[in-house]
Amino acid sequence: METSGTRWQAEGASSPVRPSQSRLKLNWNWVGVAPFLLFAVLFMILPAGALLVGAFQDPAGNFTLQNIRDLSSDYIVNAYKLSISVSLVTAVGGALFGFLLAYAVTLGGLPQGLKSALLTFSGVASNFAGVPLAFAFISTFGRVGLVTIVLRDLLGVNIYDQGFNLYGFAGLCLTYMYFQFPLMVLIITPSLEGLRREWREACENLGGNTWHYWRYIALPVLMPALLATFVLLFGNAFGAYATAYALTGGMLAVVPIIIGMQIRGDVLFNEGLAYALALGMVIIMGISILIYSTLQARAARWRQ
Q1: For residues 213 and 102, is the Cβ–Cβ distance under 8 A?
Q2: What gap in Å lies between CA 282 and CA 266, rounded to an integer?
């Protein structure tokens, strides 16, 4: 009489399992992430590699360090200082103003309709940039702009006699603020909505006040979002080109405008220097992200 163990051995011997079959089985989960990987390669990795290679090449394609040396010239250093200054000012102003607006409509008890209107405006304004934005501010705050004429004729105040210049540093920062603070509103509003009322009530029941609540509860919870948004606002202003060029006509030498001049070749033409300038921008943004990661890690320890 044949036992069950004998039958199992016979069947196993007649149809052995091949280990290679499991290795040949495809993991179809990678199909969903394939478009993202393709996008990252085409629009992030390859352009970054082209910048790295082009920054060390002369017009003939030979290896050179002259492009990197040219970054130390006073003109280039001042351009980086100006770009960083504009980015810092607008990032701080946009983060502060946007946070206050988002707090007012989210936790300040304002009507729900006002919150919907602000979020709708923020969604439109955060994408309103370039030539249309520059033209709008020239028509409003230019030397013959609507606000300028109204202040001059009705109040007798000429803002340009007071030192304001739309086509200078202050004017560029004011223009950038138009799309900086709405972006802050859009990003920080969900984080503010995530603050639970029970946390404040628990703080008050334990004898805490508003300062204790924001110092030990709300700010630690919001800190990662605040830091991430600040870095995003900094990068958003640091890489802006069309708005600055359309507003100032190239008179205010921020780094993106200099890169455009070197590539277009109107007067200057040095693609290698343009690549080196762009590589410097990438390095500065990398340092900014590194600072953000460090602060976020400290914020995480703070929450613990």
Answers
A1: no
A2: 25
pLDDT in tens, 114-153: 888 888 999 999 888 889 999 999 999 999 999 999 999 9
Task: List domains and CATH numbers for the chain.
Answer: 65-303 (1.10.3720.10)
Percent of the chain that is helix, strand, coil (3-state, to 5):
75, 0, 25
| Residue of 122, 130, 92, 124 lying closest to 104 (CA atoms) | 122
Residues 204 and 210: their CA atoms lie apart, in Å, by 8
DSSP letters for 25-83: S--THHHHHHHHHHHHIIIIIHHHHHHHHHTTB-TTS-B-SHHHHHTTSHHHHHHHHHH
Task: Give the pLDDT confidence score for residue 277 in this predicted structure.
Answer: 93
Encode 293-303: b = buried (16+ Cβ within 10 Å), e = exposed: eebbeebeeee
pLDDT digits (tens, 9 = 90+) for 182-225: 999 999 998 898 888 898 899 989 888 989 999 888 988 888 88
Taking the CA of residue 162 as centre, how many other CA atoms within 13 Å lie in the half-sphere pointing to its CB? 10
